[in-house]
Write a sequence for this structure.
């Protein structure tokens, strides 16, 4: 298939894009919708807080574990097969959640949703890169980054609204019709545009990838219960991942082509995107902790504070991609980083006297700055990859981003709880988000320096 994808009409390409973006939005919103439901489920199902947190933590872990497998699935099967099986799996998980009668069936529902969600995110990005010409990559990945950053921010607000009037099972019931509709449209309208390759899946790579990822990511939650067990899991997991990487470098057809990390554009711009995503999720988690635990606000009102930022992020992302296509990433990313740092002052000086309006504005400016960074970083990361490397690139990018996001949230929440004063702890954690913004800009400046030397 040529870069301009002549087999796909403009009408079909737009339909495919709409289906992929809608399914990704529903999946990513579902990931965070459970956050505000945890206290309700804890009471109704009579489980501990540590147990109920696995409904969100387990979701993130499964995404991090499953995503590396997506590159092999994209190459071995047609795009139509991958999409229908992925959406079908998500529907199964959602249906189980609709009828869940105990905690374990509810957890199973979430883990099945997560397995499908991890595959869907990589599939969406790989497909959109494949079916559009390279000169439109910034615009199309701008739409993708709009979904990646907006959907998780909208999720808690939507769930807070639902939980005001309906039981927690409606967090699944409300999602189910959308996914069934997407499956039906995909079944009748989604055409095949990829050619499956006769590749052999290296099952040893699959096993050690799952084992290493599970131990390393699982350690994040174990740290809160037992520090030494957490360190043991993390170290063993990292050692196994090291051997996984070494094996991929030797294989002719690796499960994950880690060699692409040697490309400066992919490596450095992936890190820029990771820092931006860590900052986004960290701030998104800390603001509700402050408003609910310090100011005593409800989950729905706390979610509303995040809503203007999510909307403005989406509006900015919708045109930032086009600006990247015209002018490149330089001034967009620098401007975005500066905006995020400027908006930090009300956050690092947060107190019981902080204005909700000022807090909302500061968060919104940070989200706008994030839109200026995230889409160009994503587009620039893929600028040096070939068509055959795109699926591996999306798998690596999504895996590293999800894992880093989970690490960021866990790290910042744990640090916020260390001092005797929660306000002091939140201020320290907010300062760490400022450091993330500084590291992001330094990494980008290093990329610019290397680019000039070529």
């Amino acid at each position: 298939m040529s870069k301009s994808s002549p087999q796909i009409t403009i009408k079909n390409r737009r339909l495919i894009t709409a289906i992929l973006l809608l399914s990704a939005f529903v999946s990513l919103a579902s990931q965070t919708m459970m956050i505000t439901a945890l206290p309700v489920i804890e009471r109704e199902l009579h489980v501990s807080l540590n147990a109920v947190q696995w409904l969100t933590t387990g979701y993130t872990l499964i995404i991090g574990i499953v995503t590396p497998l997506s590159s092999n699935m994209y190459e071995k099967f047609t795009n139509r097969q991958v999409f229908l099986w992925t959406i079908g799996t998500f529907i199964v998980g959602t249906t189980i959640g609709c009828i869940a009668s105990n905690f374990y069936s509810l957890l199973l529902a979430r883990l099945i949703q997560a397995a499908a969600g991890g595959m869907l995110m990589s599939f969406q990005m790989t497909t959109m890169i494949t079916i559009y010409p390279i000169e439109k990559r910034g615009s199309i990945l701008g739409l993708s980054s709009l979904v990646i950053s907006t959907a998780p921010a909208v999720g808690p607000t939507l769930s807070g609204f639902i939980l005001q009037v309906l039981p927690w099972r409606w967090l699944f019931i409300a999602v189910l019709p959308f996914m069934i509709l997407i499956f039906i449209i995909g079944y009748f309208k989604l055409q095949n545009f990829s050619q499956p390759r006769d590749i052999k899946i290296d099952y040893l790579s699959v096993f050690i990838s799952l084992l290493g990822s599970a131990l390393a990511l699982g350690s994040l939650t174990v740290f809160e219960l037992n520090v030494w067990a957490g360190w043991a899991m993390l170290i063993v997991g990292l050692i196994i991942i090291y051997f996984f990487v070494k094996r991929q470098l030797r294989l002719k057809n690796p499960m994950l082509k880690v060699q692409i990390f040697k490309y400066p554009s992919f490596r450095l711009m992936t890190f820029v995107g990771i820092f931006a995503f860590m900052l986004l999720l960290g701030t998104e988690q800390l603001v509700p902790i402050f408003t609910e635990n310090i100011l005593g606000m409800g989950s729905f009102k706390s979610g509303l504070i995040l809503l203007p930022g999510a909307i403005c992020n989406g509006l900015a992302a919708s045109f930032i991609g086009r600006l990247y296509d015209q002018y490149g990433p330089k001034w967009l990313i620098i401007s975005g980083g500066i905006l995020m740092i400027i908006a930090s002052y009300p956050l690092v000086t947060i107190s019981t006297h902080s204005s909700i309006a000022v807090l909302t504005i500061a968060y919104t400016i940070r989200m706008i700055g994030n839109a200026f960074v995230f889409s160009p970083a994503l587009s620039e990361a893929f600028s040096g990859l070939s068509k055959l490397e795109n699926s591996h690139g999306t798998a690596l990018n999504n895996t590293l981003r999800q894992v880093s996001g989970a690490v960021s949230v866990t790290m910042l929440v744990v640090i916020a709880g260390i001092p005797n004063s929660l306000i002091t702890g939140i201020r320290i954690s907010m300062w760490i988000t400022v450091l993330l913004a500084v590291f992001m800009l330094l990494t980008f400046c290093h990329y610019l320096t290397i680019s000039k030397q070529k």
In short: DSSP finds 19 helices and no strands in the chain. The CA atoms of residues 6 and 131 lie 9 Å apart. The first helix runs from residue 10 to 33.
